[in-house]
Amino acid sequence: MKYQILKLISILPIVIVTSANANYADVKLTHINPEKSAAQWIRTKQFSPQYPIELAMKGIVGCGVFKVTVDENGKTGDVELVSSIPKKVIYKPAKKVIKSWEWKNVSDEPNLAEEKVIRLDFCMGGKTEVEAKARCAEQAKLECSA
After folding, report:
1. Does the structure show a pLDDT above 80 at 7?
2. Considering only CA atoms, which of 30, 28, 68 is closest in space to residue 50?
3. Domains, the chain, ranges and CATH?
4. Which is higher by pLDDT, 146 or 1?
5. What is the pTM of this model?
6. How far is the C-alpha of 146 from the C-alpha of 96, rounded, in Å?
7. What Å distances lie between residue 86 and 1, 54, 67, 121, 123, CA to CA?
């Protein structure tokens, strides 16, 4: 039963409620290199990554650029922080999210390791999920380095 509740929580959008005001959160994933259309490996589940609870509870928003290695078996290997705002605060919670991803080979090529550069934007604000996604899309257009 606990597992089912945790599983349900992990797929629902994060909603932070403070004195009758709902504050939605969203995470936007951007494939920097290779672009998603040119990648050998993509995530098996193509929905928004989960907003890390540690960040949500502290009201932390920001972005991070990560170098991620997917090995020849489709497992996440190294996750390295390239840059972030705020500086280094989002690395541990974001790394935990990235490490949980499963990957599938979508190319016609044999399985080979692939290095990716991705950007995750962690956004809060808005009274609806649509508003939160719109804020995140705008935030993703900004520079992600201090």
Report:
1. no
2. 28
3. 2-139 (3.30.2420.10)
4. 146
5. 0.81
6. 23
7. 37, 14, 17, 11, 12
- Which three-class secondary structure state does DSSP give residue 133? helix
pLDDT tens profile 26-59 = 999 999 999 999 999 999 987 888 888 888 888 8
Q: What is the mean pLDDT of residues 103-132?
A: 93
Query: What strands, in cross-sheet order, belong to the sheet with 62-70?
Result: 15-18, 21-33, 114-124, 62-70, 76-85
Counted residue by residue, the chain has a size of: 146
Token pair listed for 144: 């992600």
- Helix boundaries (H) for 33-146: 53-58, 91-99, 129-139
Q: DSSP letter at 2?
A: H
What does the alpha-carbon distance between residue 3 and residue 113 come to, in Å, rounded to a whole number? 32
Strand partners, 102: 75
103 token code pair: 């990957």
Q: Look-up: residue for tokens 């494939």? A: 31
Two structure tokens written together for 16: 């932070």
Q: How far apart are CA 135 and CA 83, in angstroms?
A: 21
* pLDDT given for residue 79 in this prediction: 96
